Amino acid sequence: MSLTQIKGVLFDLDGTLADTAPDLVQALNLSLQDVGIAAQPLAAMRYAASHGSFALVDAAIPNAADDLRTQVQQGLLAHYQRINGDHCALFTGIAALLDWLELTQIPFGVITNKPARFTRPLLRKLNLHLRMPVIISGDSTKHPKPHTAPMLLGAQQLGCVPSQILYLGDAERDLLAAKAAGMLGGVALWGYLGENDKPLQWPAHAYFVSPEQLHQTLIERLAC
């Protein structure tokens, strides 16, 4: 498979399309403060932001008792519902990339494991919801990534066969899902990769250090 085949582009949300860590870590810290635990610095928690609420809790209070872990996670979700999107922004270069995709009539969208009650309000705040024919959340299908169900639904809604879709993500499950669905997998190296991540071992077709590099690569490959 080759990037010259691309007829559509799909993105993971947290850590790939948008920098959501500031909101997520703020929600985590508000929940930690509710139970008398000190707040954590954004830089130390950032790597966990792609992996869900429990990953953030475990990064902040490793080996916590189950009841405390659940209490902090539930508080995080409650606070996040209120502040979702307040401090979030597209990664530098993403806006220009999306404009170019529209100009070249390449449809794009999002497949995320974030629940729909957070995904859709966030994309509305980012003014993207009306530009995307595909918005698939973690609860849009019975199984989230790395299962193929959300990926195949995304391909159907995009109107492209999977082999013509570039799926970009910053977590191993994103690339496993793309491979299983027959999509081209691209690693967003600008995302929330932790020190234990080994992206070169993920089943990817391409690696991109920045949205600008991705944009330029697509321009060059699609001109072939």
TrEMBL record:
<dbReference type="InterPro" id="IPR041492">
    <property type="entry name" value="HAD_2"/>
</dbReference>
<dbReference type="InterPro" id="IPR036412">
    <property type="entry name" value="HAD-like_sf"/>
</dbReference>
<dbReference type="GO" id="GO:0016787">
    <property type="term" value="F:hydrolase activity"/>
</dbReference>
<dbReference type="InterPro" id="IPR006439">
    <property type="entry name" value="HAD-SF_hydro_IA"/>
</dbReference>
<keyword id="KW-0479">Metal-binding</keyword>
<keyword id="KW-0378">Hydrolase</keyword>
<dbReference type="Pfam" id="PF13419">
    <property type="entry name" value="HAD_2"/>
</dbReference>
<keyword id="KW-0460">Magnesium</keyword>
<dbReference type="InterPro" id="IPR050155">
    <property type="entry name" value="HAD-like_hydrolase_sf"/>
</dbReference>
<dbReference type="InterPro" id="IPR023198">
    <property type="entry name" value="PGP-like_dom2"/>
</dbReference>
<dbReference type="InterPro" id="IPR023214">
    <property type="entry name" value="HAD_sf"/>
</dbReference>
<protein>
    <submittedName>
        <fullName>HAD family hydrolase</fullName>
    </submittedName>
</protein>
<keyword id="KW-0119">Carbohydrate metabolism</keyword>
